[in-house]
Amino acid sequence: MAGTPCRLFSSLLLALLLLAGLSGCGPLPMSSAAQPPPSGALVVSFIDVGQGDGVLVQSGGENYLLDAGKAQAGPRVVDFLRSRGVDSLNGIVVSNPDADHIGGFVDVLDAFEVANVYLSGDPKGTSTYNSFLRAVRDEGSEVVESRAGMQMEWGQTRADVIAPPPGKLFSETNDNSVGILLTFGKARVLLAGDAEKKSEEYMSNGSYTGPLTLLKVTHHGSNTSSTPLFLNSFKPEIAVIQVGADNSYGHPTPQTLERLQKAGAQVFRNDEHGDVIVNIDGEKADVAVTKGA
Q1: How far apart are CA 239 and CA 216, in angstroms?
Q2: Which of 9, 165, 254, 277 has the lowest tally of Cβ within 10 angstroms?
Q3: How far is 132 from 147, CA to CA, in rounded Å?
Q4: Which residues in the chain come in under a pLDDT of 70?
């Protein structure tokens, strides 16, 4: 979908610009009324959960939540889902079992019926992970181990699991992040948690390479991710970094931002833009933010 235009909304102005010429976008205030996604569209919302991940995917009347930030982000995630018209979840995806990805799921599982739970099968013996597993058990959700080669239909969108590999997992938890490629018409969206060099190399050597409409930048913009091989293999038009303001990790690193710039990606960040909501209708991508310019 190379060269696809991206429209950016503000509360007062709708500007239609070519992606290569974008200079920023204004804030989109969140309404107190629920705002379900338009029919016939794929909507991917990157929730501002601070230093963590939380992505809502909505397509064809179905709702999927990939990660939910730390425990303190749980109420924020629940409120956001309700603001987007969510009353139940067809599935949640645990991209990896670290606290900044799963902590908020306890509140989510308490607030919504969750049909399926997708995870890599990489164990994590922490109290946060054990609390998450207890919440899943109490919910009665079906648990599905998700590895490369698995295919699903999420509403009107195809969801291909392209990482981690089947069989033996990598030695590092981040490299075992569940990577999901969404295909909606000509649009392609890649969400791959905290994948680092080994996982990025695995995905880059697979059969799903090609330009992306949208990329969730792996591992919060760490310098150990977004390798040149990976960005050259997938070439994102729009890249969203899930990162907290003034975080102690220095994310995103200047090196990662430079690599994204060289790849030609238009970059949005939760610390600067708040919630980032991308509406894709198969022909174009519209990006709305809740703060910043």
Answers
A1: 6
A2: 254
A3: 20
A4: 1-33, 293
